[in-house]
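HUMAN:
Could you generate one sequence with tokenized structure?
ASSISTANT:
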Amino acid sequence: MEYVSRERVAPLTGILSVVSLAVVFAAAGGRIPPSVVPAAPESLLEAIPHVNALISLTALGTITMGWRWIRRGEIGKHKVAMLSSFGLFASFLGLYLYRLVATGGPQPFPGPEAIYQFVYLPVLAIHILLAIVCIPFLYYALLLAAAYPLEELYQTSHARFGRIAASLWLISFSLGIVVYLLLHGVY
């Protein structure tokens, strides 16, 4: 059953990518005032990074299992794993953006300046870059899967874009955990 028109996969990928990244950049740039999100107790805001670290670890597992299952030909399990991964990604991003807007900006790095410049910033920059680059690949692979029946999906670039998206996702989530550990574990 076709859920997305085949002719609309590329334009929808572009639109979803631009809108998603615009929301992220607006939140990160302080363009969304805190008054547009409901107030939350400080304890909830403090819990979000820890919850997001668990979401990231879980997503690493679901992406890895989805990749494993498709290599074994277990398409139903692959589909569930990858849709779960997307749901985890959306949950992570929603919580991250909520905290970012509610607190008025990113959390300052509490460690030494040398670690900040030579470890934290490069890891954070690569994490963010990969997350940004991943978005259109991710949308394209998902929309192809929604637009084609399984027997025709093999004739599309779904597998190629899916491998790229999964690789970028895995690295980005892993680096996000490193960022979390630097902010909340080491310092």
Remarks:
- The chain has a mean pLDDT of 95.
- The chain has six helices and no strands.
